[in-house]
Each structure stands twice: as C-alpha cells, then as structure tokens.
Amino acid sequence: MTALIEQLKRDVKNWWLFTLIGILLLIAGFYTLSNPLSSYLGLSLFFGGLILVNGIMEFSFALSNRHQTHQWGWTLAAGILDTILGLILLVYPGLSMSILPFIVGFYILLLGASLTSYAFQLKNLATRNWGWVLIGGILTILLALSMIFNPVIGVATIIGWTSFAFIVGGLFNIIFSFQLKRIKDHMPK
Asked: Taken in order 53, 54, 55, 56, is the CA torsion positive or negative?
C-alpha cells in the first residue's frame, strides 16, 4: 500500500506532464487531419518498420529456440520473409502506402467475422441483446469490404481514425492531468 501511495505522490507531483502529453497528442491529431498525405506516408513507414522488427524478432526467436521447438524452421522462414518484406516496404514507401488499406481492411474483416461469431455464441447462451453485437459485426465487415474494394476509403479511414485517436487521447490526458492536480491540491504535504 505504501508503494502505491508513493507512486500516486510522484504522479500527482508531475501532474503537468499529462497536460503536456495531451497537448502533444492534440497537435498530432490536428496535424494528421491537416496534412493527410505526409501523415499517411508516416503511417506507411511505421507499418513497414513494424513488419521489419517483427521479422527480426521471429528470426531471433527461431534461432534461439531451435533445440526446444519442433518445426522451428517455419518460424525462421516467417521471420526471414517478414524481414525482407519490412525492408522492401521501407525502401519503397509507395508500395507500403498502396497496400496499407488492404492490410488494415483484411484485419478489420477478420475482426468483423469474429464479432459476428461471438454474437451467435451469445445467442446460443440465451444472452439478451446479442443482436447488437451481430449488428456491430456486420457493420465492421461492411466497413472492411469498403476499405478493401475502394482503397481511397481505406486511406481516409486510416487517417481519420488515427487523428481521432490522437485527439481523444489528448483530451483525456488533459482531463486526467487536472484530476491529478486536484488530488495534489488536497493532498497533505
């Protein structure tokens, strides 16, 4: 309990850091909205870098566990392929920008399929309001299909949701910082 109180005192002492983080997130959100092309390029490069790092980690995992893991060669092969793909996407950002809506679209399609499946599981368990989960799954699938078949919608969605996430994160960091300040003002010295 003492460690928790000490942590709270440290957080409350530097409450303004959350305000600063919130302001930076707000700036990032509005920058993303006002400069969609450069923001999209940045997201595409981040995506390529993420695949590269994932490939290196898979490669390292496969080599370090080759004596303990059966069929470690498949993990090694996946790591090599991811590393090569990540490098290609970083060297050729135009390629990365062109496939990002498809990757995100297919990911969202799988998410929608999962939600639809969960809805039917809830129905089988006689749970009330399972239909809302089904509607959410169907809407998610429709959004994913629109991203896959119309990449312009995919690009706009990626930029829109990224900027929205930055703005919401910024606002809630600022709100949190003022709550911490209020705690600090009422905390015994």
From this structure: positive
How far, in Å, CA of 70 to CA of 155, rounded? 40
Going by C-alpha positions, the residue among 170, 98, 171, 108 that lies closest to residue 136 is: 108
pTM above 0.85, yes or no: no
In the chain, the amino acid numbered 168 is V
Buried b (16+ CB within 10 A) or exposed e, 35-55: ebeebbeebbeebbeebbebb
Q: Is the pLDDT of residue 91 over 90?
A: yes
DSSP character string of 58-89:
HHHHHHHTTTTSTTHHHHHHHHHHHHHHHHHH
Rounded Cα distance between 29 and 44, Å, is: 17
3-class SS letters over 111-168: HHHHHHHHHHHHHHCCCCCHHHHHHHHHHHHHHHHHHHHCHHHHHHHHHHHHHHHHHH
Neighbours of 120 (CB within 10 A): 13
Count the neighbouring beta carbons within 10 Å of the beta carbon of residue 141: 18
The alpha carbon dihedral of 131, 137, 143, 145 has a sign of negative
CB–CB of 74/100 below 8 Å?
no
To which H or E segment does residue 175 belong?
helix 151-186
pLDDT digits (tens, 9 = 90+) for 111-170: 899 899 988 888 888 888 889 999 999 999 998 899 899 988 889 988 998 899 899 999
